[in-house]
Every structure is written in structure tokens, then in C-alpha cells.
Amino acid sequence: MDNAGYTTLTRQSGLVREMNVLANNIANAATTGYRAEGIAFSEFIKSAPGTESISMATANVQMTSLEQGALKQTGGSLDFAVEGPGFFMVQTPEGERLTRAGAFSPNENGDLVNMDGHLVLDAGGAPIFIPPDAKGVDVSSDGTFSVDGNPLGQLGVYRPVNPLDLKRETGVLFEAPDGVEPIEEARVLQGFLESSNVNPITQLSRMIEVQRAYEMGQTFLENEHSRIRDAVKTFVR
User: Residue 67 — left, alpha, or beta (φ > 0 → left; ψ -120 to 50 → alpha)?
Assistant: First the structure.
């Protein structure tokens, strides 16, 4: 295979990966708190036999969109959304993780948990306890929890120290390898959930572009294969 073929193959590989990311975004367009992802293409130079160097493409950088999703009012006393930057933090078996999905409920022990049963943490990194006999739960815009009129704590809102290093662990959970810090000015909305920030129309449009680009690359590879085969046949004769 010549250099043009190698270069095209690396591009094709990146397009396949981007197509998978786009499909995952579209599949999660209705997932509460989901953050859309994208792929960044880059070029690097690699030495190759018979030539000084060859230009290659890579699509190894996966980016997460932190754009605000639409806020949907639910009226649920334990449904929360962060308006602006920031994440809730939950305790998982693998460690603390960030999330924008704020559909919480008390477990059998009275601790506030997310839909997967992970403990929701307060501003100090401790679990939040809801008394079983509580008649009313109110949360102010700064995240202060009040049960039957008595303040019990503050719902934690955090941001990654390095947003560029935010790593998706599952659909709505993220790891911040460089650590997190609390956001004191965060605004918490009770009775609201944040929708996915995926724009299905934009994602579908990009999917069509990627498919066409892949087909063009495939056609080029097939033409190159035919050209080289014909050249070999002519040489052998």
C-alpha cells in the first residue's frame, strides 16, 4: 500500500470512531443530564519505509460539551438542576464522580442517592441524610437543605479543576483526575431536571457528513487498489 493509502486508512478509522460517538449522542438525546461528546481530528508526521515521512490523521481526542441543557420543571421535591456551570457529586465504588443528572431519592437508610443508588454528597463531601419522618424538603438556590423548616446541610456543587481532563465514566458520570473544587456561587433549582444538551438535528447533520466522507475515502481506496493492480499486471506482462 502506498503512502496515500495509509493516510486515508487513518482518516477512515477516525471517521468510524466519530460515527460511534455521534450515534451514542443521538441515543442519549433524551437522557437526563447527558453531556454531548465530540471528536477532534489532528495530524501527525510519521516516518515510513522508503520515504522520509508520511502525514497521518488521528482522532484520539474526545471532548465533552459543557453547554447548559434545557431545564424541565418536574415539581419533584428531590429533583434538582444546576443552572450554569457545576456538577453534583456522588460516591461510587470507584470513587467520587461528577454528574448533572439530579433525579435523587432517599434509600432505605434515609441517605440521598441518585438513580444508580450512589450517595449524593454535600458541600463538605459527606452523604446527605433525609429523616424518614420528614414532611417537607426545601432547598434554596445556594443548595441549603431544610427539612420541615430546619436547615440540615448544603447540596454540594463542584467543578473540575481542569475541565479539559474531564473523563466520562458512564453515560452521566464523570471523573475529574485533577480534582474538583466547590462552586459557592452555584445556583440550584429544586423541582427541575436538566435535559440532555444533545441537539439531534446537528448530530444527524454531522452524521450524514461523516458517512459521505467515509464513502469518499472508501472510493479512493478502491480506485487506488485498482490502479496498483493494473500497474502490476502491466509490469508483469
Answer: beta
213-237 per-position pLDDT tens digit: 888 888 877 777 676 666 666 766 6
> Which of 100, 114, 118 is closest to 194 using CA atoms?
100
φ, ψ of residue 193 to 5 degrees: the values are -130, 145
Q: Could you report the per-residue pLDDT of 163-186, keeping only the tens digit for each?
A: 888 899 888 999 999 999 999 888
- Strand 174-175 relative to strand 192-194, pairing: unpaired
Residue 172 and residue 101: Cα distance in Å, rounded?
Answer: 7
> 192: which 3 cell numbers?
427541575
**Cβ distance 125 to 133 under 8 Å?**
no
At residue 206, φ and ψ (nearest 5 deg) are -65, -35
